[in-house]
Amino acid sequence: MAVTGRLAFVTGAGSGIGRATCQILAREGATIIATDKNITDVEKTITSINKSENSHTGMALDVAEPEAGTFFVVQTFANAIIDHGITNASIINIGSIVGKYGNIGQVNYSASKAGVELLTKTASKELGKKGIRVNAVLPGMILTPMLQAVPDKVKEKFKLSTPLGRFGTPDEVAEVITFLASDKSSYITGASIEITGGF
């Protein structure tokens, strides 16, 4: 499942799923550009992967800013990929299972993540003929700083509703992302892969 020789641009790389994705992609041979709104956290991520042979870099990027929303990041990199004549590229967007099923108290979050999933499906149709695959992962309850902010009573309810009876780990999501970035998934595009423990 190696991604040796590939350049990986990872947003949200300062913690959680983003950091784990950087670590696993680097382990598999990719060169990483790690981004997050907090440059100190990015530097910690870079430190954690600099044991590998490749030269990794980091930069500040806040995807909450209008000019760095998901759409513009996909558009910018799709154009760069096409301009450089790369015909075997992969874009992986991070959605959420609540974008598919909704969740009480998360109207804005659910709607934005539903948008990510449909952006992914549409972009895959537009970019496929250019050799760019576009997929999404839809994590469920994953042990990240975001989940830690949820009250224990609510977390326990979610755990009981999950057939596997536990929360997922960032590494489990990152392994799927790495698979989608590799040639092992060469005929997968426009897909939304649920990583939820069956939730």
Automatic annotation (TrEMBL):
Keyword Aminoacyl-tRNA synthetase part of the UniProt annotation:
no
Pfam families the record matches: adh_short, adh_short_C2
Kindly give the InterPro entries that the UniProt entry links to this protein. NAD(P)-bd_dom_sf, Sc_DH/Rdtase_CS, SDR_fam
| Taxonomic superkingdom | Eukaryota
Under Gene3D superfamilies, the record lists: NAD(P)-binding Rossmann-like Domain
Report if keyword Oxidoreductase is assigned.
Answer: yes
Keywords linked to the UniProt accession = Oxidoreductase
- Single GO molecular function: oxidoreductase activity
Coiled-coil residues: none
Q: Tell me the protein family, please.
A: Belongs to the short-chain dehydrogenases/reductases (SDR) family.
Q: Which PANTHER family match?
A: DEHYDROGENASES, SHORT CHAIN (PTHR24321), ESTRADIOL 17-BETA-DEHYDROGENASE 8-RELATED (PTHR24321:SF8)
What this protein is called in its record is Estradiol 17-beta-dehydrogenase 8
Q: What organism, scientifically named, is this protein from? A: Aromia moschata
